[in-house]
Amino acid sequence: MDHPHAWIMLTVANAEGKPEPWAIELNGPSGLVRQGWKPKTLTPGMPITLTIHPLKDGTHGGQFLAVTLPDGTLIGNPNGRDPAGPAAGRRHG
Question: I need a surface site. Which of 6, 20, 34, 71 has the fewest CB within 10 A?
Answer without folding.
Answer: 71
